[in-house]
Amino acid sequence: MSTHRVYLDHSATTPADPRVVEAMIPYLTERFGNASSVHSFGQEARGAVDRARREVAALIGAKANEIVFLSGGTEANNLAIRGLCEAVEPQGRHIITSSIEHSSVRGICEALEKRGWEITRLPVYEDGIVRVEDVRSALRADTVLVSVMLANNEIGTIQPIQEIGALVRQARAPGRKQPWLHTDAVQAAGRVTINVELLGCDFLSLSAHKLYAPKGTGALYIRRGVRVLSQNVGGHQERERRAGTEGVPGIVAFGVAARIAREELAQRNEHTTALRENFEAAVAERLSDVVFNGRTDCRLSHISNISFSFIEGQSLLISLDLEGIAVSTGSACSSGTLEPSPVIRALGRNDELARGAIRFSFGKDNTTAEVNYVIDVLSRITQKLRTLSPLNKIRVPRSEFVKSEF
Ligand SMILES: Cc1ncc(COP(=O)(O)O)c(C=O)c1O
Known about the structure:
alpha/beta; Aspartate Aminotransferase, domain 1; Aspartate Aminotransferase, domain 2; 2 domains; seven-stranded mixed sheet; three-stranded antiparallel sheet; 40% helix; globular; binds pyridoxal-5'-phosphate
C-alpha cells in the first residue's frame, strides 16, 4: 500500500473546512438547544439557523424565507419534484428532464412514471449539453415541471438554465403558474455564481457536503408562492415543508461553508482550473488512447472525465487506490455486472469507452505536486493494464483518441 494519499474525488464529497468545523462545534456542546424550544437554549439555536438560512440564500441570490433545510441533495430533489407533482397532480402529468441527471432525479422520475406520469428525457449529444430548442419542442400544455441540472456531476458540463428558465416562463399560459422549473445545483453551487432570479427557476437543490461542510445537510430553494406537498409529515418545522427537528450543527456548518464559498469562489476556481489544465495537458501529451468527455469550455472548473480505451474503469480505479489516489467511475455495480455510466453513454460513447471512464475532481487543497504524482502513476498503470487487457486486441490508430473537439 502506498504512503501517498491524494484525494481527487471532490465531486463525491469534500472534507469539512476547519473554519466550518470550528463554527459548528459549540452547537454540539454548550449551544445544543432544539430550535423549536421556547426557552433561551432554543432561541439561541433558532438564531443560528436563521443566520445560516440568510447565508445559504445569499449564495444563490434568494430570500431567506425561500430556503428549506433538509438532509441533502437527494432529499431536496425529492421535495422539489415529488412534492410539486403531488401538490398539483390533477393539473398535468408530464415532466421534462435530461438524460444525464443525478440518480436521485432519475429514480424519482422512474417512480412517477410507474404512477402514470409521462417523462420526456432530453438528449445531450456528444458535448453533454441539453439544447434549449429540444426543451421548446418537448413542452406541452400538460407539462408540470422541467427539471434540468445546473451542472453535471460526472462530466461537469454547465447547462443553459437561464435560457431554459426564459422559455419556461414564456410557456406559461396567462393566469397559469405551470410549468415550473427545477434545477439540481448540488455540483454547481460554490463553483459558479448562482442567482435564482436570473436563472428563472422555481426550485434549486443544494447539498452541504459538496461545499466543505459535513454530510447530512442540504437545502431546497422554493420560490415564494410555489406550493409543494411535504414529504415528511408530523411536525411544523421549516414552515410545514419538512417535518423533523432541525440538524442545527449541520445547518450552522452549511451557513458558514456557503459564506466562505461565496467569498472564495473566484480564488477556488482559479486554483482548480490551473490544476486541471496542467493535468489534462499532461494526460494528452503522455498517455495514448484517451478521450476527454464533455464540452471542455462550458464546464465546472474542478471536473475532468476521461475514458481510457482498452481498460476497465473499475480496474484503473482500484489500481490507483493501491497507489493512494482516490478517483471515481460512473459505473454502478448491479447484480455483479458493471453497468456503464448512463451519463457517458448519453454522450454517444460506446460501451468500452463508457466502462473506461474515470472522473478526476479537484479541490481547493490539492497541489501541483499531487497532480504530478497522479500523472506519473497513471502513465505507468495504464501501460500495465493495457498489456494485460483482453480488450487490447484490436488497436485503433492513436489519431482517433486525441482530445475531442468539445
Ligand atoms: C448532481 C447531484 N445531485 C444530487 C446529489 C445528492 O446529494 P446528497 O449526497 O446530498 O444526497 C449529488 C451527490 O452526488 C449530486 O452530485
